[in-house]
Amino acid sequence: MLELIVSDMDGTLLDETMHIHPRNREAIMHTYQLGIPFIVATGRNFHEAKVLLDEAGIRCPIIGLNGAILFDREGEVEYEIDLDDQVAKEIIHYGHEHGYYMEAMTSKNVYSNSKHQRLHYIADMIQRMSPELSFEETLSRASQSNEVNSIEYIDDLTDLIEEEGQHILKLVFIHEKGPQVLHPIQQELSQRYDNIYITSSFKSNLEISAKTANKGGAVAKYCQAHGYNPKNIMAIGDNLNDLKMLEMAGYSFAMANADPAVKEIADYVTGPHNEGGVADAIYKALDLSQTNTQWDKAPYGD
Fold first, then answer.
1. Is 259 contained in some domain?
2. Between the N and C ends of the chain, which has fewer C-beta atoms within 10 Å?
3. Residue 296: inside a domain, yes or no?
4. Statement to judge: residues 31 and 65 lie in one domain
5. Separation between Cα atoms, residue 237 and residue 299, nearest integer Å
6. Is the domain of 62 the same as that of 13?
7. Where are the alpha helices (DSSP H) in 56-114?
8. Measured at the alpha carbon of residue 237, what is the angle toward residues 236 and 239, in degrees to the nearest 5?
């Protein structure tokens, strides 16, 4: 019996327009009718995720910032795992000294040290998902997006700690050259600090959080708190920050557009995010788990 469905958002639940694909919404609503709960586990913060879920009429708990924070259905924080303040400040200083573009996430919001670079980062994400669009078109979409207009811009991210008293849950380094620049940063920071966890949700970013803050740990904690057996849950994702979550789920799915490492870990590969691949995976999981189902649409594979 399938007990719980956990889905990543970017490159998974969301299509190339950065909205929830209609087929995915339909499948999720079907599982609600069966009494199977649905949650998202995303690198996004609460507000970025909630806007898109609300738009699709989906109300669910949100594991945010790669597992560093959990919000219940009402938007209340159940727990958060922050970076050590001194470590966070040192990493920010390191980024400033080397001239890297950075973002910081707290329980309140996302903060960027450059609106110009944030705009181009989001435009690049859109173009990766929709390569047929011109860069001018993606830049126009990005400039109007919630991902650019809902966050705050601050020159020195250490002010969040020193002046506002906030705790940073995740730091992100972003560079257009991807692993060529980011991999050496990862190696250096990993050697310097043993209490951080570093992963990636896109080739152009590096995401840093506390060592215990990851999607797999967050899903395991959620299952323990709510009495779900991890062997009876479905998890689906597309990138490296989803690996630990997929490893602990009884039914694990990678998107067709997923990183090769994700496909290697997952039990099954479903359709691409642009075609509502999450819906196909849900129907497949219902079939595999022999969950009693009655749906209007033909199940996966028919």
1. yes
2. C
3. no
4. yes
5. 20
6. yes
7. 85-98
8. 160
Task: Report yes or no on 299 lying in a domain.
Answer: no
In a 3-state reduction of DSSP, which class is residue 46?
helix
Element (DSSP H or E) covering residue 137? helix 135-143
Summarised one tens digit per residue, pLDDT across range 158-191 is 999 999 999 999 999 999 899 999 999 999 999 9
What pairs with residue 105 in β-bridges? 110, 170
Distance of CA 99 to CAs 69, 203, 243, Å? 29, 19, 30
121 and 74, same structural domain?
no
In this predicted model, what pLDDT tens digit does every residue of 102-113 receive, in sequence order?
Answer: 999 999 899 999
57 token code pair: 């009429």
In this structure, what CATH number is given to the domain that contains residue 76?
Answer: 3.40.50.1000
Q: Which of 163, 190, 210 is the last residue of a domain?
A: 210
Sequence-ordered list of residues with C-beta below 8 angstroms from that of 90, at least 6 positions apart, any chain: none
Look at the chain and report how many structural domains it folds into. Answer: 2
138 in the same domain as 169: yes
Single-letter code of the amino acid located at 283: Y
Residues 52, 136 within the same domain: no
Residue where a domain terminates, one of 191, 210, 229: 210
Whether pTM exceeds 0.85: no
Bridge partners of 237?
254
Cβ(232)–Cβ(4) below 8 Å? yes
Residues 77 and 162 in one domain: no
Residues 6+ apart with CB under 8 A from 154: 111, 112, 113, 160
Count the neighbouring beta carbons within 10 Å of the beta carbon of residue 98: 11
Alpha-carbon distance 174 to 9, whole Å? Answer: 19
The residue assigned the tokens 């991890």 is 230
CA triplet 111, 104, 247: central angle to 5 degrees? 130
The token duo for 147 is 């991902």
Q: Which amino acid is at 195?
A: N
